[in-house]
Design brief:
Strand content: 15-25%
Radius of gyration: 34 Å
Number of strands: 14
Distance between the termini: 89 Å
Strand order of the largest sheet: 2-1-5-4-3
Number of helices: 18
Structural class: alpha/beta
CATH architecture of the largest domain: 3-Layer(aba) Sandwich
Length: 470
């Protein structure tokens, strides 16, 4: 070691003191890999007292699965020590307590007489590695939230606001206004296609959480094996195909509202997991032991009679009462006759803008046909009928034959109640499905759309009623 003064006394004690003041750890071993010198930082990194490490093999500090590789590399360095890199490289260390840690290590050799010593400069980079992982996790989470919110913006533009001024709808709006400013859980019920999602959006928009996300989960579309991952997220490597961390819907909705659409479709054996999060406001990701707190307001929706389902043992009674703190029943379109024409004109306006044509006029005779029809598919069916009519009219007045819907006599208002899950019989539901399948030539996509169901929900009900696929 060069010094400014030749008479400067540097004893072993001085050198040890200097090494102990270094920020890096130093481990020195001989050609037999026996440790001969350790500074205080190295002892701290590996969790030993310095004296415990002396005269023991350096393999002590290396995880077992890396020892053979280290042995091979060490032998090469003994034969040609000049070939060692002076750069820091990533490595894995083993603490006294058996835990592993990420390191940066740089090797050097020092020949003293006939003996060559090898020095490892060691840095504990656990903090940096954890920070990188957290950055990656947050990046993935932000990407998922960005993609989800992008979809939500598109949906919001597509469905617009609640339209109508019928007495039945005014009652629903009064209930929304009453509950929106609270944190009460809301259960929105009603037939498929009546606009339950719009009610959920209206509750969120009028709440104190309006600036936070409204996150939607379609419970009927989640495969059973991915239920926990979808709701709670998972850790990378938790199961086959989990190639990166995933943020669940509960975490995405933190501070905002989680909309559980078709909540009645959640399998019975999985309902307890949802109940626990609703009660405790905490969860664990799949493959992760860390419990995470969450602040989420729940709005659920269903077209099923959950009270009846709970009584029959098909839905957890405690979950039903947890969800149904404040129920809102959305009336079917046939009970909102005053709203049919304003809705039809709204859908025509949207379709015309998309087609870049003038909005077609609706003659009085066509308006009366719209109002007399029972609309078993409710608002969703009306929207699809008016979109088709706008395309076929090409800017000209709407003609009755362009509506592409069954005649009023084919679906009388009394029969349309077969689509109301709250009062339907099994025979009514089966008959309604068979009739819709017949009207649409067995086409599942069109039949599901007409009934206001998802394809998965229609398949499940066909299976329940033993209706064969064509």
């Amino acid at each position: 070691m060069p010094t400014a003064r030749d008479d400067l006394p540097l004893t072993t004690a001085h050198l040890s003191y200097l090494l102990d003041t270094c920020a890096d750890g130093f481990v020195v071993c001989d050609e037999a890999q026996s440790i001969v010198l350790v500074n205080a930082e190295a002892a701290r990194i590996f969790g030993y007292e310095a004296e415990e490490m002396l005269e023991r093999s350096v393999q002590l500090l290396i995880p077992e699965r890396y020892r053979a590789r280290h042995e091979e590399g060490f032998r090469r360095r003994v034969q040609d020590p000049r070939g060692m890199s002076i750069r820091y490289v990533e490595a894995h260390g083993l603490r006294k307590d058996g835990t592993e840690l990420p390191l940066e290590v740089r090797f050097a050799y020092t020949p003293l007489g006939d003996t060559v010593y090898f020095t490892g400069s060691v840095r504990d980079v656990s903090g940096q590695v954890a920070a990188r992982r957290e950055i990656e996790r947050l990046k993935d989470a932000l990407e998922q939230e960005r993609d989800y919110l992008r979809e939500e913006v598109q949906l919001a533009g597509r469905f617009g606001e609640i339209i109508g001024d019928s007495p039945a709808l005014r009652m629903v709006m009064a209930q929304i206004e009453a509950v929106a400013q609270t944190n009460a859980t809301v259960l929105v019920t009603g037939e498929s296609g009546v606009g339950k999602e719009l009610v959920a959006r209206a509750i969120h928009g009028a709440s104190q959480r309006a600036d936070a996300p409204l996150v939607k989960v379609n419970c009927a579309s989640i495969p059973r094996e991915l239920f926990e991952s979808e709701f709670f997220g998972h850790k990378k490597g938790a199961f086959t195909g989990a190639v990166r961390d995933r943020v669940g819907r509960f975490r995405l909705a933190h501070g905002g509202t989680l909309f559980l659409d078709e909540v009645g479709e959640i399998p019975l054996d999985l309902q307890s997991k949802l109940l626990r999060v609703l009660q405790e406001q905490e969860f664990e990701r799949v493959g992760d032991e860390q419990t995470r707190k969450v602040d989420v307001r729940i709005v659920a929706a269903t077209n099923r009679d959950l009270r009846k389902e709970a009584a029959e043992g098909n839905f957890r009674e405690d979950l039903f009462y947890r969800l149904g703190v404040f129920p809102i029943d959305v009336p079917p379109l046939r009970e909102r006759v005053e709203d049919i024409l304003p809705l039809a004109l709204h859908f025509l306006e949207d379709a015309a803008k998309e087609l870049n044509v003038a909005r077609p006029d609706v003659p009085m005779a066509v308006a009366r046909s719209l109002e007399r029809y029972a609309w078993p598919g409710n608002i969703r069916e009306l929207q699809h009928v008016m979109e088709r009519a706008a395309i076929l009219a090409a800017g000209r007045p709407i003609r009755a034959e362009l509506l592409s819907m069954p005649s009023v006599d084919d679906v009388p208002r009394s029969a349309s109640h077969a689509h109301r899950s709250g009062s339907e019989t099994i025979e009514d539901e089966a008959a309604a499905i068979r009739k819709a399948l017949e009207q649409h030539g067995g086409n599942i996509q069109r039949t599901a759309r007409a009934l206001g169901l998802s394809r998965q929900a229609l398949y499940r009900r066909m299976e329940k009623h033993r209706i064969p696929r064509r």
